[in-house]
What we know:
Structural class: mainly alpha
Largest sheet: 2 strands, antiparallel
Shape: elongated
Strand content: under 5%
Number of helices: 8
Oligomer: single chain
Order of helices and strands: HHHEEHHHHH
Helix content: 55-70%
Distance between the termini: 44 Å
Number of strands: 2
Radius of gyration: 23 Å
Amino acid sequence: MNYNQLTEHERYQIYSLLKAGLNQKEIAKNLERNPSTISRELMRNKGLRGYRPKQAQQLSDDRRSSAYKARKVSDEIHVKIVKLIRQELSPQQVVGYLKKHENTSLHHETVYQRVYEDKQEGGDLYTHLRIVPKPYRKRYGHYDK
């Protein structure tokens, strides 16, 4: 089973089901979630006035934005990644350079994700990658010569 975080809509559902008098197991069954997820959500995001969905969503967003993963690629590092990719370095070489000179440990997939984000925004950073993915070719019928 893949993990995915609770959405704002699910948090409002939890709130309304709590007000309706359902226990955590029943809420979990209703939302098709694990009961421990509901328990963790209620404990982690409870305020002075009890569980509030808007407040819970804000707390969750704050935790995600201040997480170590989110802070790793700052704007400064992003600029250096773009600069190094434009110098025709591969993502693996970019990671090695950043580790040696900036003391920043990244995975090469993080660099690829930044390149593809740039492509979706209309940028041309992907054209500086060394290897362009080959187009898919059907392998049945007759073979190209």
